[in-house]
Each structure stands twice: as structure tokens, then as C-alpha cells.
Amino acid sequence: MYQIEFDVVAIFLCSLALTVFYLQKQFSNRRSKLFLFMLWVILGNSIFSLINSLAFNSLHFSGGLLIEPVITVYLIFNMSIPVLFCLYLFALVNVNLTNKLFRVLFFLPWFLIVVIIFLNPMNNVLFFVDSAGSYSSGIGHNVLYFVPVFYFSNSFFFLILKRKEFLRKELKAYLISLCFPFAAFFLQVAIQGLSIESFAVSLAVLFLLLTIQNTRDLIDGVTGLYNRETFLLYLQDYFLRKYEFSFIMVRSRELHVLQRYLNNRTYNRLLHSISAWLTLLAGKYFMVFSLEDGLFAFISGHNIDESAVGELSLEIITRSSSPWGTGTSEIEIPFQIGIIRCPSECPGLVEVMDHAEQFITLTEVHADRHVLYGKDFVPKKHLREALVAFTLQESLKKGELELYYQPIFSNAEARSVALEVLVNLALPDGQKVYQSEVFHTAERIGLGQNLGELIMETAFTWFVTNNLPGFGIQKLQVRLLESQCIEIDWPDAVLRIAKKTGMDLAHLCLEITEPSVVNTINTLKANMDSLLWKNISFALDDYGSGYTDFGEILEIPFTMIKLDKKIVHAGLQTQKGERLLQGTISLFKQIGWPIVAEGIETEEQATILIRMGCEYLQGYWAGYPSTGEDVLQQLSIDITPKLF
Fold first, then answer.
1. Domain spanning 5-215 has what CATH number?
2. Mind giving me the DSSP string for 518-534?
3. Helix 168-190 and helix 67-92: axis angle, to 10°?
């Protein structure tokens, strides 16, 4: 007599697993689809195992009329389970059977055994019921054990081979699940009439459901939507299958800000309402995810028409104009959308996550736009440059710049006697962009002249309005961009701005870099000569950072040389470097040009440079670059560094 209790329990376990699976918030990827199919196959296997046991128990009464078709269906289910276990293992690490030869070799054992099972009634090679109504095994019955051994062995070796690609819990859980069918096999061999294969397999799959396939960790606890990890799994599956799909980002800057001002209960209620609305919008054509506070994402089905993407976007934009109730008040929460088509605009997972990060920044930059498209995004390596360019354009459009002023210390007067103007930009994410990068970007996008003129106008106005000469500041040093120097009539712009702001030209020192000297030497000297008559002085900035011919420098009417901090620091490292630095300073002193040493950070460095003959020092030791307001405060209380 075959025991049917284990088959009944197996059906119960499979039904329980299916119920749990459908109750969980599953997402439709390759892994989940395979697991669901495996559950149904194991349930079918358990049902026909029960019918099979009942048929065996009544074999002498029924005459074996039902036994052959029942065993045939049961064996097909039974032989399919190891194959599905192996395929599910491949899905855990996104291995796809793309190689046709490998695919044929993989499915060949299963295909052959299914053919043999179907042909068995004609040749009785696997089993048969004799004329006396007894069940007997055929000469090829043992081949039925080959398929499970083949696929379960493949699973085991694949686990060992790819163990580094599995999560630790996945590796342990799958190995434990393999133990159930193997244990059942040995028990059935040892105990006659015991049929626990279905029970063991259903126990294994229930164990997998509660461990690996458990989606509890894939759901965002606040919104109830799929979280970032699920989003990555879903994308991996789509890119692996080479699907064409749309990736839609939705963000509300206001929602992110509201988190600071609303209490947790009110904010969570609002978030639940928005999440429920997004889920309703997703319907059966999209999957919706919560990536972080205020940032959501939709992924379309791979066969969804583009019109569905447009309709979804329009629904979101339309809803932005209607307020959301929070219990005590109503709040308008506008949303911005980013539409990216994959893989044409985003060929891989890394690029998608890069676009998601960019979208947060771009919604700050393009706050007035409802929809952003693929062309608005840039490769990651160019993102910062694009942001700097945009921020610079906006600043010039508004006529607003964030200027800093760094003091230049005079050894003779033991105080700061000049200020160098420096420009900074603040990106939307709060990052600071310093002068060298700002100037480089301005030159690249053709805004060098506009930037240079706005710097002069802003700095001159501040200098005159606050009467800096009254604080002992004799010079305001402003660097000219190379694009300014190229223009033949750039002195006219300087004089025009000085006249407009009331700037006394005797207090102005224009800085010119070595590359500007090389590239504009034909017109530079004449233009400088014309301004020297107006009492404007000139400084060669960052000397030592370029490759200017010394003879060319001598032709230009500079009134001051500023040594680049690189040459200063290098000259303080070794005795040879110190001798070279000393020679450079002595040479310029013989010509009669005062020397400013840049990058002075310590009192020791200041002492050495003064001993070498530098009249002026600039760097953190003399003072950090500060806003105009801070500079005025410092000057009013007369805080200056002392050497001795």
C-alpha cells in the first residue's frame, strides 16, 4: 500500500506557497515568473502523485485502466521540476541561455526523457501493467533517475562555480533546498511503498519562497511601492533580455521639502495618497518604484506603445495643478518628469542610475520645465561641466556674481595693501566652483568677455561704494580673461566700466596670465600702453605656470610679477629649488618689478620669501578669500598677520 498522507501534505504546502506568493507584492521579472511556473508544476506533480498512489492502491480492483495515463502525466511533471530548479538558479544571477548550442545541450536530456515517457505505452520500456494487473518496471526504468541527477548536479556545480556572484543567503538557501529531494530519494529507496518526492520538493520550494523569493525586503516600508533594489533587479532583467522600454522618472522638489515641515503622521499620509495614485496610474502597463524621498520611477512594458508613455506623463502633469489634502490643509505639489528611452538613450544599468542622479539636479536647474527628455541629460563625465555652464549662464543673465577678495600683504607696511578679486559659483546641489574652472568654462562656451566685464563692474562698484582706499587698500587686482585680451578694443570696456562705477583707475591693477601674453602679444603691448597713461597698473599673473619666453615678458610693460604657487612651493622643497627661486626673484628685482609670492600658507614660508626679496605675499597666511562683507569687517578691526 502506498502512503498518501505525504501527497496530501504536499498539495497543502504547494497551495500555501501559491497563496503566499500571490499575497506578496511580486514583480514580474524572469525570476518571479520562473518561480511561479515552478510552483504550479510542483502542485500538478503533487496532485498526480496522489492520484498515482490511489491508482496503485486500487490496482487489483481497477485492472490498471487508469495507471498508465496517470503515471505518464505524473512523470512529465516530475521530470520538469529539476529543469525548472536549475533555470531558477540561473535567473538568480541573471544568466541567460543565449548560446543556441548550450541551450540545446541543456534541454536535450529533458526532451529525450519526455519523448520516452510518451512512447512508453507502445514499448513498455519504463513501466507496464501485466495481464494479472500487476505494475512492473521496464528495462529502462532506471533512466528516470538520470534526469534529476543530471540537473540537480548541474545546479550544485553551478553554485560552486558562481558562488561569488550569489548573495550569501541565496547560496545557503538553495543548497539547503537541494537537500530535501536528495534525502527523499534515499528514503524512498530504503523504505518500500514510501512516496515522498512531491512532499520533499514542495517543502523545498516553500523554503525558497520564505528565503530567496521573499519580497518583503523589496518593498518600501513607507510608500508600499517597490524599492530601489527591486528597481535594479527589474532593469537587469530587461537589459538582459534586450527589451526596448521607457524609463520615466517623477520628482517633486516640494514633496522633499515638506518632509522638514510636516509631522511624520501627516507626511506619511500624504505620501500614501501619492503612492496610491501612482500605483493606479501604473495600471497593467507600467511598474512603479520609490527610489528615494520625492523621487519615483515607472518602467514600461517592453511592448508598450509610446502613446501610453505620453498619456501617463500628461496625467501626472495635469494632477500637479490640483492640491493634495493633508487632513488640516491642502497643498499643491507640482511634479517634473524625465522620459528616457532604453536602450537607445540609456544602454545599461549604470547609465540609468547616472540619469536618475542627474534628474535630481536637473529638476533644480530646470525648475520651470514639466518634462525633461534624453537630450537634456549628458554623460556622467560631462555632467559637472554642463552644470557649471548652465549656472554661469544664469548668473550672467541675472547680472549677479559671487565675488571673493583675497588680501595681499606688504612686508614694507606690515599690512594688507591690495585685494585680488576671485569669482566663485554655487551649483544647485551646493558644490562650489572656483575661479579656474569658472574661467575655463566661460572661455569654452564663449562667455569670457561677458564674465570679465561683469566681474569688473561688480568689483568696482563694491570697491567705490565702500571706499576701500580709506581702509588702506591701494589696489584692486582684477584678472583679465584671455578672450578679453584677444579683443582689440578691450581697453575701451575697462574705461567704460570704470567711468560708470566711479572707479579711480590709479587703484586698479589688471592681471594678465602667461597664455594671454603668448596668444595676444601683437596687440597686448599697445593696449597696455594706452591704459598706463590712465594710471592703470599691470601684473603678470601665475608666472611659472606656463612657457612664456622671457624676452616676450620683457617687452610687455608689467609693473608687478606674481609668482605662481607651484613654483614657490617647488622652490621651498630642496636647496636646488631654493637657489632657482632665489635667482628668479633677483632677476625681476634687478629689472625693477616688485614680486608677489602666491600660495604662502605658513609663517616659515613667509619668512623665507621675504628674506629672498619678495615685497608682497598672498595666500592663506595673509588671509583667506572672503566675501566683501567679511573683508570690510576684517579691515574695520584691523586684523593683519605679524611676522615677528
1. 1.20.1070.10
2. HHHHHHHHHHHHHHHTT
3. 160
Backbone φ/ψ region at 259: left (φ over 0), alpha (ψ -120 to 50), beta: alpha
DSSP secondary-structure letter at 502?
T
394's grid cell: 544664469
Report domain extents, the chain. Answer: 5-215, 219-377, 399-636
pLDDT tens per residue across span 178-213 = 888 888 888 877 777 677 888 888 988 888 888 877
| Segment 47-95, tens digit of pLDDT | 988 888 787 776 655 555 567 888 889 899 989 999 999 998 888 776 7
Distance CA 543, CA 539 (A): 10
Predicted model pTM:
0.51
Q: Which segments within 254-395 are labelled E, that is strand?
A: 286-292, 295-300, 323-325, 330-332, 336-342, 371-373
* Helix H or strand E encompassing 265: helix 264-282
Residue with cell 505620501: 271
Beta bridge pairs of residue 478: 510
For domain 399-636, which CATH number applies: 3.20.20.450, 3.60.20.10, 3.40.225.10, 1.20.1740.10?
A: 3.20.20.450
